[in-house]
Description:
By secondary structure, the protein is an alpha/beta fold. Among the domains are: 188-350, Isoleucyl-tRNA Synthetase, domain 2 (Alpha-Beta Complex); 546-678, Isoleucyl-tRNA Synthetase, Domain 1 (Orthogonal Bundle); 726-805, 2-Layer Sandwich (hypothetical protein PF0899 fold), CATH 3.30.2320; 812-875, Helix Hairpins (Orthogonal Bundle), CATH 1.10.287. Helix content is 44%, strand content 17%. Strands 7, 8, 9, 10, 11, 12 and 13 form a 7-stranded mixed sheet that branches. A 4-stranded antiparallel sheet has the order 6-5-14-16. Strands 29-28-31-30 form a 4-stranded mixed sheet. Helix 15 links the parallel strand 22 (489-494) and strand 23. The protein starts with 8 loop residues before the first helix and ends with a helix.
Amino acid sequence: MSIPSKYDATKVEQKWYDYWMKHQYFHSKPDNRTPYTIVIPPPNVTGILHMGHMLNNTIQDVLIRRARLQGKNACWVPGTDHASIATEAKVVAKLKEKGIDKNDLTREEFMSHAWDWTNEYGGVILNQLKKLGCSCDWDRTKFTLDDEMSESVISVFIDLFNKGLIYRGYRMVNWDPQAQTTLSDEEVIYEERQGSLYYVEYAIEGSNERLTIATTRPETILGDSAICINPNDERFSHLKGKKAIVPLCNRVIPIIEDEYVDMEFGTGCLKVTPAHDENDKVLGDKHQLEVIDIFNADATLNSYGLHYEGKDRFVVRKEIVEELKDKGFLVKIEPHMHKVGTSERTKVVIEPRLSDQWFLKMEDLAKPALDAVLKESTVKLFPKKFNNTYRHWMENIRDWNISRQLFWGQQIPAYYYGDGKDDFVVASTAVEALKLAQKKSKNSSLSVKDLRQDADVLDTWFSSWLWPISVFDGIRNPDNAEFNYYYPTNDLVTGPDILFFWVARMIVAGFEFKEEKPFENVYLTGLVRDKQRRKMSKSLGNSPDALGLIEQFGADGVRVGLLLSSAAGNDLLFDEALCQQGKGFGNKIWNAFRLINGWEVADIEQPEYASIALDWYTSKFQKVLAEIEDHFSKYRLSDALMAIYKLVWDDFCSWLLEMIKPSYGAPIDKQTHQRIVDLLEHNLKVLHPFMPFLTEEIWHFLKDRSPNEALIVSTWPEKVSYDSTILESFDFAAEVVSGIRNLRKQKQIPFKTAVELHVINKASFSKTFDGLISKLGNISNIYYTSSAVDKAFSFRVKSNEYYMLADMLIDIDAELAKLEEELMYTKGFLLSVQKKLSNERFVNNAPSQVVASEKKKEADALAKIDTLETSLSNLR
């Protein structure tokens, strides 16, 4: 089998991925081995591969491939999330292109279109992950809307409802006007934005007096129910019990008193709009105020909006300000920085809105999950700094709004049979609901036709919080063999941005439904940013095409490029140069393999220097292997890769191969060749999790191997004791070789010219490496002496002195003349510097950094003079 001169990832990667799939190396079944389980953070079914996915899934693949090599039963469960809001938006947009309005469709008709879209586009991201080399058990692929997954979700809803933990309430919620659904608090992103504070006058009923209030949202004036003053504010004490008139709509509203009002903010008066502000709603309930909702679901104004009806809220804001100004109600406008809530999914500004929604009580549910991380450490977060974030969220947890006003998702299993607030039952089917409704209503004549199922669906996270349990069917069939074998899972790799959204909720679900943690360790990756520290995004145009990177640099190159600078929890400053570095590393390994493979092997005696070199690298490998294991145990994958990188590039390629390489045209002995191949195989094993394609390719070129001997299912190198003395001796010898090479370079002594080396061995350095020093420095003989050697160039390593005889190498008279000229110049330079430093006026008046610079010049000149004088002494 011919070996290409260059490694071509495009010709290798698909070949080996197909090979792995054909032989089912990724597939896992319960057996007597120790399981190692990872569940993928399910990407949105709408998604395509981006840099965050690349980083997250590369890390997971590294962990799963290493576990496989360690002999564990490695199971990585893939899948996608139905992503209610995002997917519905995609389908609505697609329908719009065809001239179809979602509102004209029945639920069944819309769901048909949604499933068509999902079946056409839903598998894209999973296929892209294969290009990255992800070794998921594709036979286990799950989708959060699969029948069995949805059945689990509905079962959990019913269970929690029957426990009294799920309830229906009329609450102020976060409303997304574009998606036209409620959002949980965690799905709202608050951004500092430059806005305005509008000062508006309200007339006081029955007088000529006017009261000024300040608001950031003048359009909501039309929904005002009261003006509130602080009872301790003497400025407004005369207004107690009076009424105000709302500008434009002329509605008469009460002036109420409450210490909630901040006397220092704005004018000290607060307009109260209970339908459009959470705090105003609390005031409204307390003072029994009218609730006036001025918005339609899409945030256009309704009939309460007067002549603004049908117009968008932000259009109305501009127009109503002009009208207030024209009619004399607007006093002034001031710039004002404030936080604005936006939808995580659609990016539009959310609206506080009163709505009937379903909620899950979280306070008691959160306690076991809080203790698991912070008290018992049964679930560990890496890095640990996120414990504080976790604590803050979990100790301040609010009830979870779990209903969404969408079609795409699991429809809430609540069935209404009357018009009363409590005229509903919760059941898995209409038939079961009918039995419950007849019993609850004491009306046996009710039929299925009298039932109306709740139109809302469950929050997508209400599916994914069950993910580690439901992928193994642990809700529907809690004692099945697979669930008992694979659960709890081992490691979860995800981003800190969903630490509460998903991670915390999965821990809650694990303890609530299984009385067991869902995973042991959570590895929290950082965000992928560009070189300017900006978050990668389509809008900024700074996010590279993920598949394009793989095409350009190969999957291995991209994986290495991402991981080389991606410490856990720290953001990755991505630069394509990192991928080029990864590709270059792959080429280095390939060329090392070709060099080894190209040597002629002969049945000849092994040189002593080769045996020592191989012994050194064997110990070096074991030392680094221990470091790699330590890095893995602490989830420092970037450090583990860097340790391997230096081991292979510096120690194996730059040193070992150079030390054992036979002379040009000469063969290598059989024993050395076999050992170097064995060591290369060890390198491939520790490299495989990071660079699976390249390593598998070389592995099969080294030997003709059967499928059960593939690298992916080989064994991780065993940790054994190593000789630290040989490592210390090599480090010393490497410095000697570097000293010889540097001296040759300085004195322009060609490497082909053999020289003698004389050593004053004050450090009592072992002579074990003399053969290697001679080979790598082209030293004809090494002599040990007790005194300095005349007419020689010298250098020092620690306390040892090394002399290279010069008379056979150069014209000594010419070298002496050159050194004497340089010494004279340096002494003259030193004199000028010292003259300047002896001038008190200069020292006292010059900037301190200038004086410091002159003192450094003096020290450097003195050191150089000492070196030159020593060199002259050695040559004379």
